[in-house]
Task: structure prediction
Amino acid sequence: MVDERNSKKEKKAFKVRWVYQSIGISKQAYSQRLKADLIRNSEKEKVIAWVIEYRKKLPKTGTCKLYEHLAPILKENHIKMGRNGLNDLLRNRGMLVKKTKRFHITTDSKHFYYKSPNLLTDKEITHSEQVFVSDITYVKTDEGHAYLALVTDAYSRKIMGWSLENNRAAFRMKVSMVKDALAMAHKNCSFEHEYIIHHSDRGIQYCCPDYTQFVENKGFILSTTQQYDPYENAIAERINGILKYEFGLKNTLKSVELAKKVTAEAVELYNNERMHWSLDFKKPQEVHLEYNLQPNKNYKKEKKNEVNSNLKT
Result:
């Protein structure tokens, strides 16, 4: 009986000893490493819980913005994890944001209405409510396609106005819709300016006399893209994509009324909660009220510089 117990102890001791000796460390170091691994795994679970909590509001938030949000929380809890570590953790858990692209034509530029010149070609945007950019995207519903008109401040990326309607009487509806979006944007202005540049693509709804007269009566100066280059209206295009792919507007919604509610919630979250890389991880409403403290990043110039750099190399 005694021999059996001794035999078991020896086998057990041999197994444990074999583990830490095989990796060239002492028994104490092995125990410390096990303890450290337990602590590290506990920290990772905490981080995942914080990510899940944050993504309840902003489900498509990527690693960079998550890290900006979590950095002070990690410091407060004495957790050492960099951006790359967070990215690796999210990848291992299958929690990286997947990028998808879909296209639907919303611009009809084959018309004979006057097209205003592009006033933004060499324009430096330096403050809020200097330039508003407008665009239309679509939202799928069980009642058919609906259209969403957006007006965004080019400096702060804040959505100033929006309007969503169904696709019945498409041309008339779009003109009424873009007028409603601009009226909301004008009402939501925080600063008094003599004029604001209104920039859009060459779509028929933006160039027809009914709309252009409405825009000028509101004190805006018209500007339109001259080519099919998406970088001529890059900010507006980008905002469309954010609302659709980060805030659920790419999904098929039950009705137009529900789509309006979802849009209202999305715009509120976007303006007040979503960090922007182009704003140095600040939020649109925050930058908008700062008026002119944030350096503006120009998508078109950055793209040109990138192309020129590639040509040189």
Remarks:
- The longest helix spans residues 27-55.
- Residues 105-109 have pLDDT under 50 and may be disordered.
- Residues 131-312 form a domain with the Nucleotidyltransferase; domain 5 fold (CATH 3.30.420.10).
- The CA atoms of residues 113 and 209 lie 8 Å apart.
